[in-house]
Amino acid sequence: MKGFEDPVIVEFPLRGEWMAPNTPGKKVPSHGTDQLGERYAFDFLQVDHERKGRPFYNTNSLRYLFFGVPLNKTYGWGEEVYAPCDGEIIKSEDGYRERARVHVVSDLFIALKNAYTFNPVKDGIQTVAGNYIIMKCKNNVYAAFAHLKMGSIAVSVGQSVKKGHILGKVGHSGNSTAPHLHFQLMDSSNLLSAKGIPCAFERYDVFQDGKWKTVYKGVPSDKERIGFNK
To answer: Greatest CA separation found in the chain?
Structure first.
């Protein structure tokens, strides 16, 4: 597992089937930057594996390209997010409005704008992270969950949570080109100064050769169809 010396092992934070288009299993830094603690961050997205191109929406491609897709026609939006370990909620920021439709042009424009002009002091973290949670795990490891559905956050600052506790729901807030969960471990609760920490998952399944195979203490690649159920 090159590049993952002594990763922190946590439970997979979602249920059901997912893929990871951005993952340290593909490259490090996984998002092309070390800023905001993102060095080893994951993006988890639900797609239709049976359709060409593995779309994340339940409609035709032309509608997505020209008109956009309502959030309730996308996969993953509203799926529950779970605590990957025992810990304490350090930050819980909700109320950031999601765009009502996913549209390739407008979403990419926002992504490019944030990539080149984002100023955390002027714009605020939620411009990028959307609705987000930061929780403290053991040994001064912090977990961050970003782009959550507005109004879905089910925990508050100072609350103790157990592994498997529902934290919120997958959304499309902030710098998001499709409803997904951005998940990362880091050494601080301050996103502006935090450094990313390598992470692997206790257990998850990978669909290979027509059947599911269990992986232990692994890091998903961007090519894998992954799943997790308790």
So the answer is: 50
Residue 8 and residue 141 in contact, taking contact as beta carbons nearer than 8 Å? yes
- Give the pLDDT mean for 154-179: 97
CA distance 147 to 168: 10
Q: What is the pTM of this model?
A: 0.93
Which helix (H) or strand (E) element contains residue 20?
Answer: strand 16-22
The residues that bridge with 101 in the sheet, in sequence order, are 70
Average pLDDT, the chain: 93
133, burial (CB in 10 Å: exposed 0-12, middle 13-18, buried 19+): buried
Q: Which domains does the chain have, with CATH numbers?
A: 8-228 (2.70.70.10)
Q: What are phi and psi of 123, to 5 degrees?
A: -90, -30
Q: Which two tokens stand for residue 230?
A: 């308790």
